[in-house]
Amino acid sequence: PGRVLSRLMEITQPGLTLGFRVLRRGSARDEEKLAKDIVDAIAELGPTFIKVGQALSIRSDLLEPVYCRALSTLQDSVPPYDTNEAKQLILEELKLDSLDSVFVGDFPKETIASASLGQVYKCRVKRSVARPWGNGDLKISNKDTEE
Question: pTM to 2 decimals?
């Protein structure tokens, strides 16, 4: 119950703040800033909201062009989440004590790609390690994504 209430507050606060700003819109510059703030809030809320934003970005019959343009950035410019969170997910999912036991050298600080549901890192796996994910890239799903 506490987690649900906490998440509800995370969603409601930016929704109400941005909702009031939409109601009292001003100049074109204000519209662009508001559209960007909406995209930032959606990205912060996580993968489900990003997917909704992506879907809305192509609905010019429902939204003004300034909002469609801003939302379209969610199609290919989703900011990555924290690399430390990704490392923790790898440790938990693969039941590891240390990333050093699996990867050659330091784990990269930067992603090579990120999307609403996960991100990709370029790293080398030690030859002695069995690869439960296969022989392809190691893709890390967003912490909020359930299989």
Answer: 0.64
